Amino acid sequence: MKHLTMKKHSTMKQRWSIGYGLLCLVQLGGTANGQEGGDPAGIPASLRTGKIDAEWVDRTHFSGQGKRPEGKDVLWYKRSAGVWEEALPIGNGRLGAMVFGGVADERIQLNESSLWDGYALDPNNPESLESLPEVRKLLFENRNNEAVKLAERTMIGRPRHVKPYQSLGELWFDTPHRAVTDYTRSLDLATGIVTVRYRHDGIGYSRETWASADHDAIIVRFVAGNGGKIAGSFALRRQQDAESAPHPTDGQSLLLKGRLPVKDAEGNARGIRFAAQVKAVANGGRIAFHDNLMTVVDADTLTLYIAGATDYPGLAQAYGTHRYFGAPEDSCAAAIAQAMSGPYQAVKAAHLREHGRYYGRTTLSLPVADGKANQLATDELLEDARKTGRLHPALVETYFQFGRYLLIASSRPGTMPANLQGLWAWQMNPPWNADYHTNINLQMNYWPAEITNLSEMHLPLFDLTEALVKPGERTASVLYGANGWVVHHLTDAWGFTAPADGPQGIWPMGAAWLAQHPWEHYCYTLDTLFLRERAYPLMKGAAAFILDYLIEAPAGTPVAGKLVTNPSYSPENAFFLPNGEQSVFTYGATMDLQIIQDLLTNCMSAARILGIDKAFRKTCAKALARLAPTRISETTGRIMEWVEDYQEVEPHHRHTSHLFALHPGNQLSVTGTPKLAEAARKTLAARGDDGTGWGLAWKINMWNRLHDGDHAYKLLEVLLREKTLPNLFDNHPPFQIDGNFGATAAIAEMLVQSHVPLKSNRFEVHLLPALPEAMATGSVTGLRARGGFVIDLSWQDGALEQACIVAEKGGILTLRAGGQVKVYRTKKGEILRLNGLLVRQLDDTMKD
Ligand code: FUC
Description:
Layout: E1 14-18, E2 23-27, H1 45-49, H2 52-55, E3 61-63, E4 74-77, E5 88-91, E6 95-99, E7 105-112, H3 128-140, H4 144-155, E8 169-174, E9 179-188, E10 193-200, E11 203-212, E12 217-224, E13 230-237, E14 242-246, E15 253-259, E16 273-283, E17 286-290, E18 293-299, E19 301-310, H5 315-318, H6 328-339, H7 344-359, E20 363-365, H8 372-375, H9 378-388, H10 393-410, E21 436-437, H11 441-445, H12 447-451, H13 459-467, H14 469-480, E22 490-491, H15 510-514, H16 516-525, H17 528-549, E23 551-552, E24 563-564, E25 568-569, E26 575-576, E27 582-583, E28 585-586, H18 590-610, H19 614-626, E29 647-648, H20 674-687, H21 693-705, H22 709-722, H23 738-751, E30 752-753, E31 765-767, E32 778-785, E33 789-796, E34 799-807, E35 811-817, E36 820-826, E37 830-835
Parallel strand pairs: 3-9, 31-35
Antiparallel strand pairs: 1-2, 4-9, 5-6, 6-7, 7-8, 8-13, 9-10, 10-11, 11-12, 12-19, 13-18, 14-15, 15-16, 16-19, 17-18, 20-32, 21-22, 23-24, 25-28, 26-27, 26-29, 30-31, 32-33, 33-34, 34-37, 35-36
Helix pairs in contact: 3-4, 9-22, 10-23, 16-17, 17-18, 18-19, 21-22, 21-23
The site of alpha-L-fucopyranose has 11 residues, from loops.
């Protein structure tokens, strides 16, 4: 249906269109009802099975000039999106959509966060435990590639790969408006609403699209100015495994239904079921159906309610269950009924309150008065950055807030956590399956959660982490004969914890790294109940595995007598062996040791705070004392990535794993470990100023931690100039959302850092630790620091002007700024107002 363009499919000889009321097939030559293009039901077979993305185009002719919409944090454009990477994302954590903003032809691509291929299975390789001693021996004897071969054969999961997260489907519609003037489309981050505005035949039209969290639906509202009428033809579609038709019981809806065709070894169908429903509510006008199309004509206003659901059993039940819950089409109908239970304006007002509650907590202002930000649309600001080499501060503000927006939209309490694409994926096989990579990417998604005041959005990560404990315990026991739980370099919605893909998958550090997050959540919130009930059990279980996995390095190795990991791998870098061969496997890779130091140290702190587990604390302390240390290369002065001073195959490799202790860890710092910090600086410089989107985002964070804001900003410039798509999505390439989240956290850490531990179980709070020259004047509100502090700051010409700090939990606050360190005793709820020299101002007040 719709038109098909000849863009990428030169063999297609026809162009399909939905007329606004009638299906029409526009013949461009060739077959009329061709095998290539169409089927009698009105939807070309190619659109059921083909590549939707390559075939969609908006046929609108644009003229005139759209104006920047109101609102401070707005992405806006003067044309509709041509491709998915220009479309604008909305989401309520579970349901997501990419809105193209087309006029003659609109496309709204839909996602539901639990629509995963695959099912829960036991992927653990039973041959692993037997081969483990031999793998270890080979590695200690520097017979690395023999170890790789044996491990590949005996340790990789069965199956070897996880299955993908997939698109739910797409809503496409035609309208009769082919030539429009003064068009704008925008996403207001503060409201979460995508708005399309234009004029046609002198009449103004607007359409707003948003995702309601509390009404659990996506809503599209069409409004016409005086005398204008709304018309359109609507179709729901999916490339595969689904059928779309008029709803059997609801005369105003289309329903798309399907099931993924997955079978287990016994031939039982195990794929999840899914459905999407779109319901049209027209004020005036008529709704009719033609084959699989729903048409609306002559409406004064039109509201579409879109719901989506699957029968995914939930993270907690996913592993080991054969049961699925509820018919997805019933869930859709229920969600739509709920969304329609109040007048549109009331449902919208509830959405604005709900979204604003999170979004409005933090503001960033980097003022310049050049008017550019008003004239240049978002893609033009990116273009301007590419031309001038410099970022407009308005772009930095928007990019920062966009990262926060994306987390609110893709990770709400009770939903799946944000995957490699957050929530948004149009393909059936997205890059890297849009899975959960646990060797950096999933964790990076959550770096901004606490510091940018979105602590609740962190919760889905803990739900996933808890769901991995049971399968992870089995993997620990089957593969390594170890206690505790383990996760390797990726996981999915079905509790996959075994090594996947290849040797890079034999990286048993995923759980240990994931366990950093609930601890961080505690450090920011000081929620002792959370620490006791959720964080500590996860941390202790991850540590139990590590304590069993560690092994003493034998005589003759560079760290003889010390505890190391084996096998071990520095994600995902390779090195040259002395004989010139390349390898990836070793023992005691630096990152492992740093993750372990982080985990065991955090476990000890947590147990001390909770006043429990003395014996376990001692065990951790003993292991820490024997752990092989992070070492500096005598030849390069850099932090060694591996236990031997191997030369890396790719010196600019995208992972900077061996600086984990600098970021996101905290054992390495400018003030605490100056020698290691200097070696880290050299390491970072050698890694270079380029990289994948997320690789750059990580390095920006690391330069911040070295208090070099200008270098950090230089990389932010590269990220925005070269690794950012027109809709501000991060570009690995391809699109991968972690870079957005990593860089958002980094912009926050230019302004506030609080990772340096003090003896008191507290952390030093450092104001403006890495302020770049390019951000010399500005203000921020609502950033959070460890210890339960909420911080507003303003600065002028590179120096702190004022700070206002709310001590939500009270206690000692150690503050560093501009070379000074001051200590304040605060009461619970106290507000400290400080001038640029950290001197308290007289109007200190207690919070009500
Ligand atoms: C890691 C990275 C890749 C990619 C993938 C999803 O393995 O090394 O670059 O980001 O995750």
